[in-house]
Amino acid sequence: MIRHALAEGWLLLRQRGAIPAVLAFALAVPIALAGVGVTVIRWLGPVAGLESRATTVAVLLHPRLDEGARRGWIVARVAAQPAWSLAEVSAPELAARLGRWFPYLEDLVDGGDTSLPPLIEITTTAPESIAVLEVDPDVLAIGPRSSVESLLGRAARRLAWAVAAVSIVLLAAAVLLTAVWVHLELFRHADELTIMRLVGATEGTVRGPFLVAVALPAAAAGGLAMLGTNFAVSAFAGIVASLGLPPLVVPPSVLVAEGAAALGLPVAAALLTLARHAADEIGS
Amino acid sequence: MIRLRSVSKEYDQRAILRGLDLHVEAGEFVFLTGPSGAGKTTLLRLLYAAEKPTDGEVWVAGRRVDQLHRKRLPVLRRKVGVIFQDFKLLRRKTVLENITFVLRIHGVPPREAQRRAGQVLKRLGLQHRQEALPDALSGGEQQRVAIARALAYQPRLILADEPTGNLDADLASELLSLLCDINYQGATVVVATHDHTVLESIPARTVVLHQGEISYDGTWPP
């Protein structure tokens, strides 16, 4: 009956011309979007410390403290707040760290400009605990700010959630579209299906053509999503390469997941719709 | 082959069948008759499990049909050839495909299915119409295709609902002799009809339904 399912499924697709194409496109777009999102986030993770949930607060000490006094102040804070991680940042270090994102800073330092203040960076998962420094006479100013990496990481995380939400909504709509289409086709072929069941066709025979009719555009959607993701990521990859950052490539696992989602979700939707129809048609 | 025990069927609290008891042996030829609305079609629908009884037991070919899980329905229906009153032909398939499709469902290889479909169509005088779509056929021709489909896989039980309703006298007679042949070869045949000339054409057991109850069970005429 596989031949029957393929032939009848292909016939269904040919009869409905544009609908399978719309379906494939509707499935491919959110999956590709999700693929791009996951690829960028996975790339950004190690680059921007995305996984870290710690906040870094910059504390500017009073200029009257010399190097020895600053060190003493740090030792005292470490003893008082074991959860803090303190690091003194000199102007060249700061320029080197930020230079990745703001290349002109390195030029400033290389040009002899040491006006960047010596900072203490306190990294903690409880940034509110920094408030105790507000009454410290040795502290001239407190951030509050996170490091550029943390800011980027947080922004990227929010972007990832936004992309995920948009992808999920679009994908749910596409899956719903699949279910509705299958439902309409079942309605259109109701008499035929009844006859098939009455002459002894198994549910596999009855449902096969509909599954084929869904699986083919779903497979096309998978291919389109993979191509779309590769295309979009390669566009980003050029920008990334020009900044001298680690190369941005689509992980094979993302492509596999795209294919699985494109094929699995609409086929599952079709299976559920067909099962519900069969239950309505022939009872339990 | 068929056993009904206290079978009742209601639609919207209206009784169609009332406590029917019926036993049909394997190899029997039985007419089911009665006026319109007597419950003939409902009784046949119970036998091929298109309906479930409101009460009672329905046994076909050793299986309790009213409790059959839907996954097992195809197994039952492959043992039963049903000739429907409204033909129930697949509109998008040709005459030949309507028959080969059923044979393929029954696991007959494609070439063998073609051969057997050709044979049965020839027997029913439809070989010249085998590439036609059902909508291009007359009522009588569609009826014969429906019969050909039911006969093609040589079922053990044939249920025919008004099979001669769309046939002229000659074709009706030919169909009845065909059903007799099949019965002679061992199949059980149950024919629902309200046509008394059909009942008189074959000396067979006749079950008369009246208002959902069996009012007569014996040879015709009473």
Protein described:
The complex is a heterodimer of chains A (about 280) and B (about 220). By secondary structure, chain A is an alpha+beta fold. Chain A has two domains: about 180 residues, no CATH class; about 90 residues, Alpha-Beta Plaits (2-Layer Sandwich), CATH 3.30.70. Helix content of chain A is about 70%, strand content about 10%. Chain A contains nine helices and four strands, in the order H-H-E-H-E-H-H-E-E-H-H-H-H. Chain A has a four-stranded antiparallel β-sheet. In chain A, helix 8 runs antiparallel to helix 9. The mean pLDDT of chain A is about 80. With about 220 residues, chain B is α/β, with parallel strands linked by helices. Chain B folds into two domains: about 150 residues, P-loop containing nucleotide triphosphate hydrolases (Rossmann fold, 3-Layer(aba) Sandwich); about 60 residues, no CATH class. Chain B is about 35% helix and about 25% strand. In chain B, the strands form two sheets. A six-stranded mixed β-sheet of chain B has the order 6-7-8-3-9-10, sandwiched between helices. The longest helix of chain B has 16 residues. Chain B is globular, with a radius of gyration of 17 Å. The model of chain B has no long low-confidence stretch (mean pLDDT about 90). Chains A and B meet through helix 7 and helix 9 of A and helix 2 and helix 3 of B.
